[in-house]
Design goal:
Elements (H helix, E strand, L loop, with lengths): L2 E5 L6 H16 L4 E5 L4 H10 L15 E4 L2 E5 H9 L3 H5 L4 H4 L4
Parallel strand pairs: 1-2
Antiparallel strand pairs: 1-3, 3-4
């Protein structure tokens, strides 16, 4: 399974761009393999993202905004959920990954 981050490369909203960059930078810094999926370039991917976000996680009005995070086909959450997991140091669990701390050998 690969982490997929659904982004919008041509978003005019600075807040969305910052949130997308925050997620991508965190994954890169922690050497977590991921794929960026640009929903502005593919209507099929945009529809897939909308369809695979659980109804209880969708906004009451409008469509879910990027970034949206998946592990394969499993929905992990949006930026707010990601941020909460980052603050509580539970990102690996949020992403459905095994913590790297458990696999590190002691020096």
């Amino acid at each position: 399974m690969v982490i997929r981050v659904f982004i919008a490369s041509s978003s005019g909203f600075v807040a969305i761009k910052k949130k997308q960059q925050d997620v991508v930078r965190f994954l890169e810094a922690n050497k977590i393999e991921f794929e960026e999926v640009d929903i502005t370039m593919s209507e099929e991917q945009r529809q897939w993202m909308y369809k695979n976000i659980p109804p209880e996680k969708k906004p009451t009005q409008g469509n879910p905004l990027p970034p949206q995070i998946f592990n394969g086909d499993r929905y992990c959450g949006d930026y707010d959920s990601f941020f909460e997991s980052k603050e509580s140091n539970t990102v690996f669990s949020f992403l459905g990954l095994k913590s790297r701390l458990a696999s590190k050998a002691e020096p």
